[in-house]
Design goal:
Its EC number is 3.1.11.6. The protein is mainly α. The chain is 65% helix and 0% strand.
């Protein structure tokens, strides 16, 4: 999942930025206004990550449903995303 385009950084890059934001906000030198700006940026990045992970989950579900059609039930890989599978 390390793939990224120029317009869309990788999830790993986004998470690294969130970690950097957290470290910066923890320093007293950041100040209130700086912390608020960083908090807003962090919320935006977290939303991007949530959407990207949701897309990845949908892809996995499609892959898993395709596997279930191709293999007999006894040979299927357990679906870790669906309870009771």
């Amino acid at each position: 999942m390390a793939e990224a385009t120029a317009a869309q950084p990788s999830v790993e890059t986004l998470i690294s930025r969130l970690e950097e934001i957290t470290r910066t906000m923890e320093t007293p030198e950041t100040g209130l206004e700086g912390s608020i700006a960083l908090y807003e940026e962090g919320l935006s990045i977290a939303e991007q990550c949530r959407k990207r992970l949701q897309e990845a989950r949908k892809k996995i579900e499609v892959i898993n449903s395709g596997m279930h059609k191709e293999k007999p039930a006894a040979d299927r890989v357990q679906d870790l995303f669906t309870p009771g599978s």
